[in-house]
Amino acid sequence: MLSRAVVVLLQLTRDRLRMFRSLGLKPLARLSSGRCVPQPNLFNPCVARSFSSTVRQYRNVTDIDELFKNENQEESERQWSTPLAKQLFAAISTTGPVPLASYMRMCLTGDIGGYYTGAIGEGRDQFGTKGDFVTSPEISQIFGELIGIWFIAEWISQGRPKEGVQLIEVGPGRGTLMDDMLRTIQRFPAMANSIDAVYMVEASRELRNAQKQLLCGPDAPSSESKSGFHSPSKYNGKQIVWTDTIKSIPNEADKMPFIIAHEFFDALPIHSFQSASAPPPQPKASSPTSPAQPPPENTKPAMEWREMMVSPTPPGVTHAQLGTPKSQQDEPPPEFQLTLSSTPTRHSRFLPETSTRYRKLKNMPNSVIEVCPDASIFATDFATRIGGSEQYRKTKPSGAALILDYGTSDTVPINSLRGIRHHKRVNPFSAPGLVDLSADVDFTAIAEVAMSASEGVEVHGPVNQGDFLELMGIRERAEQLTKAPGVDKETADKIDGAWKRLVDKGPDGMGKLYKALAILPENDGRRRPVGFGGDVSG
After folding, report:
1. Theoretical Cys-Cys bridge with 482: which of 129, 141, 322, 492, CB 3.0 to 4.6 Å?
2. Which band of pLDDT confidence, cut at 50, 70 and 90, is reported for residue 49?
3. Beta bridge partners of 309
4. DSSP string covering 64-76, please?
5. What percent of the chain has pLDDT above 70?
6. Phi-psi label, residue 409: left if phi above 0, alpha if psi -120 to 50, beta otherwise
7. What global pTM score does this model have?
8. What is the pLDDT of residues 386-406, one digit of tens each?
9. Yes or no: is domain 25-41+135-268+374-409+437-521 CATH 3.40.50.150?
10. Hey, CA dihedral for 188, 189, 191, 192, is it positive or negative?
11. Neighbour count for residue 377 (Cβ, 10 Å)
12. Which residues lie below 8 Å from residue 226, measured CB to CB, with a gap of 6+?
């Protein structure tokens, strides 16, 4: 049983400084590696990801049939930027334009040159100042420490179970966040001992290797089971299990799953739809006994959803023809573009009808919406693991999911697809497989799906990341680190600049753009979690 002193450490609203004393005073070595140093000439990926996408400017009204005219002669001579670009063209030439979600999936996780799963260059790294973008855990160790504290607070509030805790991360990157979390949790032995296993949902073999080296050490033994690959953690020997999908993780009635999804949902493929006038109804055929019925006059045309599809740009196309923004004209014209389907597709008939939020926009001409089916799949999985369902019965609802990402609080995302490469915003339809693709997260949709999937959960948020981290005590923890013995001014300045960047709500910060949402066991709203306006209880 935890001592009263430990509980006091977690009473963030009463005595934050005492809480952080248990985490240690030594800043991690990575703070002096330059990751937190402001780069005057470095494009801020947070700013890049905050801009509305201009992807619709890449639409070309060229008729699809005209697009492929003389393709055999012209395309055989075309030089493609990546092997994946050539493969995409071959597929589209066979089947016709593909949904935006299919394009994103192939670019991010395709076997041939996918951004995360098929690295072309040996030793290529997507993360950090030498990669394409920097994430919050890479900016400051405090971020991961506070996430660890958040789950400790939930563990206490839910009765301090002695066993049965599953720690799950989806999209773990290089493993930096989980490393900071485990180091923090290790300071609280009772919770550390309650963890049955740590599950890392990661499809990339290269990223799995990087995670294993960081979390287990380069010489740690490995084994394999039907759940995935196992290695003992360097902290307490608890098994870390790597799985391709979250479905491989046991969903058991007596387990308490603690799930973290940081910058995961933004990389899930999206479908994009636009409302358009449906063809007018055809007059009824005449018969010998009744004349043809003309269509009624002055009727408002019915609206339908059409899907935005990806097709190749014509050979030799110019930036002027595509309407490429000037900031992106230093690169070759993109090899692909968005086109609007001329008729409804199977996706446009179904996906926009899944929510009243989408249906309300249907009758507004040229309305654009983005829908992420994969986000619904993961939100459903999180909710049923925590709250149970008809299929997955639970002894009682338990656990928590914390989602941190960038996106909209109460509006449907539109035109948010963006590409990032070398810390610069680039055309999302250029260099497939070498560009990070992402889109705004629809937090309201995640909340709706989670509560529909399980009656045993409730949702808190989203709240701004800056507010969440301030309530968790980021300011006090940073002050503690900067004043620790042996910390020089240069290191202190890096620590100070790093945490402020995470909470800054200005255009160059991450405090407002990024948001936090929590899925918890249903409790009639009687308890707010820490970071969302509540305190530790239990």
Report:
1. 492
2. very low
3. 99, 339
4. HHHHTTTHHHHHH
5. 79
6. alpha
7. 0.84
8. 999 999 999 999 999 999 999
9. yes
10. positive
11. 15
12. 248
Cα–Cα distances (Å) from 202 to 109, 230, 272, 319, in that order, read: 11, 13, 26, 37
Pairing mode, strands 457-464 and 514-521? antiparallel
Name which of 435, 492, 350, 471 is nearest 131 in CA terms: 435
DSSP assignment of 139-181, as one string?
H-HHHHHHHHHHHHHHHHHTT--SS-EEEEEES-TTSHHHHHH
Classify residue 420 by its DSSP letter.
Answer: E
Please state the φ and ψ torsions of residue 84, each to the nearest 5 degrees.
-65, -35
Query: Torsions phi, psi of 267, nearest 5?
Result: -95, 5
Q: 459: which 2 tokens?
A: 């949702």
The string of pLDDT tens digits covering residues 487-515 is 899 999 999 999 999 999 998 899 999 99
Q: What distances in angstroms separate CA 106 from CA 99, 118, 213, 425, 436, one per listed residue? A: 11, 10, 28, 20, 12
* Structural tokens at position 457: 């959960």
CA distance 121 to 202: 20
Q: What are the pLDDT digits (tens) for 193-210? A: 999 999 999 988 888 999
Can you tell me the distance from the alpha carbon of 198 to that of 203, in angstroms, rounded to the nearest whole number?
Answer: 16
What is d(CA 48, CA 58) in angstroms, rounded to the nearest whole number?
A: 18
Q: What is the largest CA-CA distance in the chain?
A: 100
